[in-house]
Specification:
By secondary structure, the protein is α+β, with helices and mostly antiparallel strands. 41% of the residues lie in helices and 13% in strands.
Length: 254
């Protein structure tokens, strides 16, 4: 009736990770529980998780599109920054409109590119075999967000040349070459983004330390507490990157 996890911060980027302890069957990687159901209309797996200790609600905090905001800041991409400066701005919809694709496909492109995904990875994620078409869409994305495209290109080259990259907070990360050139290039792009996002999130968690007794779970850019918790002000400005948060009160995690 209860689930547990063990958290670590010993990865290359210092981001919080979740893992099972091994022997305890109740101890699991709880960051890998998917948000969406596999089939439309089905309950999500997360809906199985409920408040405990007699509470009727969970409080959920989610940093809105944190890694994409980090990319916009690091690259100083003017189009991305203007979208994120608008409270109603939607980067995924902007991508969809400019590329004439669905918002779901646009979301795949936006996240695949910050994780260093090439046209083959993107095609696999949108269930397409038309590699030339995906390549054309990728080139169009690069034209739509030129500063972000330039940052990605330069970051890839410098990561390989120097063998290391650095986050906004100054953490130096060595590039792993043992898995091949393509993987090293992906890490050159993603390590600074992921590490900076992790630094922002951990800074915010320090401001939320007073809620620690009720804290239940951390999942990437999301925190869960038992009960209806009041959030302190200023979470959107814990770093140079503007980071608005979304607060929800739920009866189930899903």
């Amino acid at each position: 009736d209860r689930a547990y996890t063990t958290f670590h911060m010993d990865g290359r980027t210092g981001r919080i990770t979740s893992a099972g302890a091994g022997k305890d069957a109740a101890d699991r990687n709880l960051q890998n529980i998917p948000k969406k159901a596999e089939r439309g209309g089905a309950p999500t797996v997360r809906s199985a998780f409920m408040p405990d200790d007699g509470d009727s609600h969970l409080t959920r905090l989610d940093f809105s599109q944190l890694e994409l905001r980090v990319l916009a800041h690091l690259a100083q991409d003017q189009r991305m920054l203007s979208i994120f400066a608008d409270p109603d701005g939607d980067l995924h919809q902007d991508t969809a409109t400019s590329m004439r694709i669905s918002r779901d496909f646009a979301k795949v492109f936006n996240f695949a590119l910050i994780y260093g995904g090439d046209e083959y990875v993107i095609a696999n994620n949108i269930n397409s075999k038309d590699i030339p078409a995906v390549k054309r869409y990728t080139e169009q994305w690069m034209r739509t967000y030129p500063q972000a495209a330039q940052w990605i290109t330069v970051q890839k080259l410098e990561g390989i040349r120097n063998g290391k990259v650095q986050s906004l907070g100054g953490r130096v990360m060595l590039i792993p070459f043992e898995l091949g050139q393509a993987h090293a290039e992906h890490c050159s792009i993603n390590f600074p983004i992921q590490c900076t996002a992790g630094e922002i999130f951990k800074t915010a968690m320090r401001q939320l330390a007073g809620l620690q007794a009720s804290e239940r779970l951390q999942v990437h850019d999301e925190l869960l507490w038992t009960g209806k918790q009041q959030m302190p002000t200023g979470l959107d400005s814990v770093s140079a990157v503007h980071t608005p948060v979304q607060i929800e009160y739920l009866t189930r995690w899903g």
